[in-house]
Amino acid sequence: MKITRQDVEYVAALAHLDLSEEEITRLQRELDSILTYVDQLNRLDTTAVAPMAQVLYAAPPDVALRADQEGKSLERPEALAAAPDATDTFVKVPKVIER
Amino acid sequence: MDDLPRSYSEIRPLLERRQLSARELSEQHFQAIEERNPQLGAYLWLCRERAFAQAEAVDQAVRTGAPLPPLAGLPVAIKDVILTRGVATTAGSRILEGYLPPYDATAVARLEQAGAIILGKTNCDEFAMGSSTENSGYFPCRNPHALDRVPGGSSGGSAAAVAANLAVAALGSDTGGSIRQPASFCGVVGLMGTYGRVSRYGLIAFASSLDHIGPFARSVRDVAAVLGIIAGRDPHDSTSADVPVPDYLAELNKPVKGMKLGVPREYFGPGLDGEVKSKIEAGIRKFGELGCEILEVSLPHTEYAIACYYIICTAEASSNLARYDGVRYGFRAPGVNELDAMYRATRGRGFGAEVKRRIMLGTYALSAGYYEAYYRKAQKVRQLIYQDFVKAFERVDALVTPTSPTPAFRLGEKTADPLQMYLADIYTVTGDLAGVPGISVPCGKSKEGLPVGLQLMGRHFDEARLLRLAHAFEAAGGFEL
After folding, report:
1. What are the contacts of B136-139 at 24+ separation with CB within 8 A?
2. Is the predicted ipTM greater than 0.90, yes or no?
3. Which of B241, B348, B435 sits opposite A18 (nearest CB)?
4. What are the average pLDDT values for consecutive 10-residue runs of chain B, which has 481 residues?
5. How far apart are the C-alpha atoms of B183 and B191, rounded to whole Å?
6. Are B296 and B261 in contact (CB under 8 A)?
7. B26, B154, B155, B219: which one is catalytic?
8. Backbone phi, then psi, for B75, in 5-degree steps?
9. Shortest CA distance to B435 belongs to which of B234, B199, B261, B209?
10. Is position B318 annotated as part of the catalytic site?
C-alpha cells in the first residue's frame, strides 16, 4: 500500500475534514488505487518538458489589467446576508483564542 | 408536453405574430416541469417570479412594437453551479443549501439582457464532480430516454431538461467533459468553448485552469445563438479572452466542403463500445459525403489524460473548496465551540463522498514531498497532451471522435469504483487539458434506444468552424444516423 492510515489522517487534518472511521478505511483504499493508476505518468520522461499551468492565448501583457479606479462593490448587508451567524458589521465565529 | 416548441427558430415567429406570449410559454414549461420533474430530477430549484417578470418585459416589448432582443422569450435552465441573484444556488451540495447569491454570473446576466427567460437551476454532481449526476447532494437525475440510466454528468440536469423539453436551452459547465458527455448521453447538442471564450464570473470554481461555461440545446443553431450572447471579454473575469466574437449564426451556413477532419486513432481503441464505434464511423462517413477530407491522426499521449486530469483537477479543487468553512455562507455545523473544530465538522458533514475524495487526493498531491512527483509531473504531461493537439491541428481543421466510450450507463453501475467512473471522461478530459473547444452532437441511437454522441474538437477560438460542421451534419440527417 502506498497510502497508510497515518497519511489519510495527516491529509484530512491539512484539508480541515472530519472523517469517520469508515471514511478513513475507505479513503485509504480508494486513494491507494487512484494513485497506483496515476503512477503510469512516470512511464513518460518529462525532464525537458515545461510544465503547463494554464492555457494561454496571444494577448497584450496588460490585457487583464483595468484602470486603477474605485469600483462598486457589494453593500455590507448584502455581503453578510448569507453568513450563518453575523452582526450588522461582522461575521461571527466560535472562539479563536483563550483569554 | 410534446406540443411545446422544439427550437427558438419556432418560438421567435410565434412571439412576433402574437400567437404565443412569453408568459404562456413560461407557464407551459413550468407545467411540464411540475409533471415530469418528480420522476426525472432535472431541476433542483425553480424561479417562477423571476421568469414571469422577464416574460412580462418581453410581452410588453411585443405589445409596444419595441425591438425584440436576440433571445427574447427563450426558456433556459441554468446549472446550479452558476450564480443567480436571489435564486438558490447550491452547486448540488448540502454545504450551500439555501444559499442566495448577491449577484448574477455574467453568462446569466447576458442571457437575461438578451431576453432569455430563466426557469430554474438544474441538478448536477456536487461541485460539478462526477460523470453521472449521482453525486448530487439532493437527488439523482435520470435520463429521459431510459429512466434506469444516468443522464451523464456533471451537467446532467441541464442535458436532461433540454432533452425532455423542460427548457429550450441550458447552461452547463465543463471541467473534464461535464457538458459534452451528458449532451451525448441525453441526445442533445452541448458545446464547450475555448478556455477563456465565456466568462466564468459567477461560476462556482472547481478547477480554475479547466472550468468552462457553455450551452446546451436541441439544435446547433440554438447553441450558436446562446454562445454568441455569452461569449466575449468580461472585465470581471481576468481569464476571459479579449478575442472578437464572430457572428456564429451567420457562419452556420458556410460550406464545409474541403475541410480536413482528423480521426485520432487513440480514440477508437479498447474500451470503446462496439455500437458507439459503428455509429461514429457512420458519422465520419457522413462528413465524407459532405465533402470533408478524412485523415487519420495520432494524439499519442491520450492514454495519460485521465491520470493527468485527476491530479490537476483535484489539486485545484482542494484549493478552491477551502472557502467552504461555515463562516461567510452556507452550512455551519451547529454546537461546535472552537474555530478549527467548527471548520472540520462543517466540511466533514457538508461535503459528500466524491467531493471529500477529491479534496483528499488534491491535498495529498500538493502536500510537502509529493508536489513534484504528482502535481508538477501532471502539469508536464498536460504540456505533452496540449502539444499533441497543436501538432494535429497543423494537419487538420478539426478532430472527430466519440464523445463517450459507451452510451448512458445504469444508475449505480459505476458508483462503487471511482476509477471506473473517471474513465467515462476519457475522450473529453483531453479537450479541457488542451483548452480547445469541443461540441457533442447526436449521432443516432443504440439498439436499446440510447443516444450516441459524436464529438468535434477544434483549434483555439475556432468555435465557428465546429458549429458550421455540426450544423451541416445536423442538416444532412447525421443526428438520426
Report:
1. B136/B41, B136/B44, B136/B92, B137/B90, B137/B92, B137/B93, B137/B94, B137/B95, B137/B97, B137/B352, B138/B44, B138/B90, B138/B92, B138/B94, B139/B41
2. yes
3. B348
4. 80 96 98 98 98 98 96 98 98 97 98 98 98 98 98 98 98 98 98 98 98 98 98 94 96 97 96 96 98 98 97 98 97 95 98 98 95 96 98 98 97 91 93 98 98 98 98 98 92
5. 9
6. no
7. B154
8. -80, 120
9. B209
10. no
* Residue A16 φ/ψ region, left for φ over 0, alpha for ψ in the -120 to 50 degree band, beta for the rest: left
Residues 14-33 of A with CB under 8 A from B: 14-20, 23, 27, 30-31, 33
Closest to B357 (Cβ–Cβ): which among A10, A30, A82?
A: A30
Which residues have a Cβ under 8 Å from the Cβ of B413 and sit 6 or more positions away? B150
Q: What angle do CA B82, B85, B91 make, to 5 degrees?
A: 30
Of residues B460, B476, B124, B139, the one with CA closest to residue B285: B476
Helix extents (H) in B290-417: 305-320, 339-350, 353-366, 377-395
Cell of B93: 451540495
pTM of the model: 0.97
CB pairs below 8 Å between A and B: how many? 165
Annotate B325-346 with DSSP letters as a single string. SSSSSS---TT--SHHHHHHHH
Which residue is catalytic, options B26, B178, B199, B440? Answer: B178
The three-point CA angle A85-A90-A93 to 5° equals 45
C-alpha cell at position A60: 497584450
Contact A57 B241 (CB under 8 A): yes
| HSE of B469, CA atoms in CB hemisphere, 13 A | 31
Q: How far apart are CA B298 and CA B427, in angstroms?
A: 13
The residue among B82, B408, B133, B455 whose CA lies nearest residue B299 is: B455
Q: In the 3-class helix/strand/coil scheme, how is B209-241 assigned residue by residue?
A: CCCEEEEEECCHHHHHHHHHHHECCCCCCCCCC
Q: Is A99 on the interface with B (CB under 8 A)?
A: no
